[in-house]
């Protein structure tokens, strides 16, 4: 497999070196997966109860007035439960990390998470397209999500001048942006008829999931809050509006946190992208290289990693997406050591540091020019 386009790819350059690289990374996976069992099952079960506990406490505290600290503590607890449900629970369960338990609560195909994005769309554009075609131009639409220009390979257009404030809006409404991602609205400009057909096919499922979330967060729970408030003598409207506001705050907390973690795992300085012509029949070593070179890690402690859904170990997640994410912290030093020996950059940094490079990338590529990220996967015979 050769290409003359793009910057040279770091790492193993010969078939023999690639085979060794693959074998060492495969060994890490095999040895770790052999340890998966009751300890992991206890962890995910306890996590489910923790999420439910935070949600219950948060919703109860939302029944107090917004002028009291208890209300904002309730909104924060509800937001915390949503972060954990989306990232450490929902995202990982939907990757099939706990399918071996044969428990419907943790089944990757049937689990419906607390998000406006349907599980069917997520499994297609994330589990398959993103993870299989990581950072491949025109195939992995998660690089920029079809809305942001993040490298010089994307032709500049005047509309990109507003992408910095647009990115902030996307952060606030991130679950909604992800929900419509698979419909590929941005391609209406270049392939209108086919895109309209795609939207018509996908919209019923998208609309149903959106309405389910709207009913839950902005109709049913506020009504429950209003009725409880009425029974307690505080009035229907007061309780309804308090719960409605609390749900909005909690969803914004979840949306912004998810945005930050995902963008810091994919769009930091030093990320690489790849030519689609090079991934057909690629060596498994090149697939591994794409996962590593297209991902970034975030340093932190145990609680921090849990809050990110262990996507602070984005490199390890891309290498082993069906491995229980709680295992990534254990395998990360071994993966990093393999990368160092084979000359493969292992991108990691603090959350503020990684977020700063993301912000710089978004602002810089609002204007013409910018960094070229296209990388040539080249094997020497």
How would you briefly describe this protein structure?
The protein has helices spanning 15-33, 38-61, 69-94, 119-132, 163-172, 174-181, 192-231, 236-266, 284-293, 302-307, 314-319, 328-341, 351-364, and strands spanning 7-8, 273-274, 297-298, 348-349, 374-376. The chain is mainly α.
As residue ranges, the low-confidence spans are none
- Strand percentage lies at under 5%
Largest sheet: 3 strands, parallel
Rg calc: 22 Å
Terminal Cα span: 10 Å
Core attributes:
13 helices; mainly alpha; 5 strands; globular; 381 residues; 3-stranded parallel beta sheet
What does this structure look like?
The protein is an all-alpha fold. The chain is 58% helix and 3% strand. The chain has 13 helices and 5 strands. A 3-stranded parallel β-sheet has the order 1-5-2, with no helix packed on it. Helix 1 runs antiparallel to helix 12 and helix 2 packs antiparallel against helix 3. The longest helix is centred in the middle third of the chain and has 40 residues.
């Amino acid at each position: 497999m050769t290409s003359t386009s793009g910057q040279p790819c770091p790492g193993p350059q010969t078939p023999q070196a690639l085979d060794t690289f693959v074998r060492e990374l495969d060994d890490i996976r095999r040895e770790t997966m052999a340890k998966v069992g009751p300890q992991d099952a206890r962890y995910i079960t306890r996590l489910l109860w923790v999420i439910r506990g935070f949600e219950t406490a948060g919703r109860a505290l939302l029944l107090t007035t917004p002028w009291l600290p208890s209300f904002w503590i309730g909104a924060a607890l509800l937001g915390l439960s949503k972060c954990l449900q989306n990232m450490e629970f929902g995202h990982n369960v939907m990757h099939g990390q706990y399918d071996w338990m044969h428990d419907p609560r943790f089944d990757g195909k049937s689990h419906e998470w607390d998000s406006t994005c349907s599980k069917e769309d997520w499994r297609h554009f994330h589990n398959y397209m993103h993870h299989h075609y990581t950072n491949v131009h025109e195939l992995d639409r998660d690089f920029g999500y079809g809305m942001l220009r993040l490298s010089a390979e994307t032709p500049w257009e005047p509309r990109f001048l507003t992408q910095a404030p647009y990115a902030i809006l996307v952060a606030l409404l991130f679950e909604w942006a992800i929900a419509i991602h698979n419909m590929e609205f941005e391609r209406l400009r270049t392939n209108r008829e086919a895109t309209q057909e795609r939207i018509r096919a996908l919209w019923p499922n998208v609309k149903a999931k959106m309405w389910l979330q709207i009913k839950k967060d902005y109709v049913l729970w506020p009504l429950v809050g209003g009725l409880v408030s009425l029974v307690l003598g505080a009035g229907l409207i007061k309780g309804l509006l308090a719960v409605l506001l609390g749900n909005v705050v909690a969803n914004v907390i979840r949306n912004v946190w998810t945005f930050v973690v995902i963008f810091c795992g994919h769009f930091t300085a030093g990320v690489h992208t790849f030519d689609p012509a090079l991934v057909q029949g690629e060596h498994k070593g090149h697939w591994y290289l794409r996962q590593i070179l297209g991902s970034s890690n975030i340093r932190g402690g145990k609680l921090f990693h849990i809050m990110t859904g262990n996507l602070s170990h984005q490199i390890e997640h891309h290498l082993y997406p069906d491995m229980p994410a709680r295992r990534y912290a254990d395998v990360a030093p071994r993966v990093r050591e393999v990368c160092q020996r084979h000359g493969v950059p292992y991108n990691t940094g603090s959350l503020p540091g990684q977020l700063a490079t993301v912000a710089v990338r978004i602002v810089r590529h609002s204007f013409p020019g910018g960094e070229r990220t296209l990388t040539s996967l080249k094997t020497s015979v």
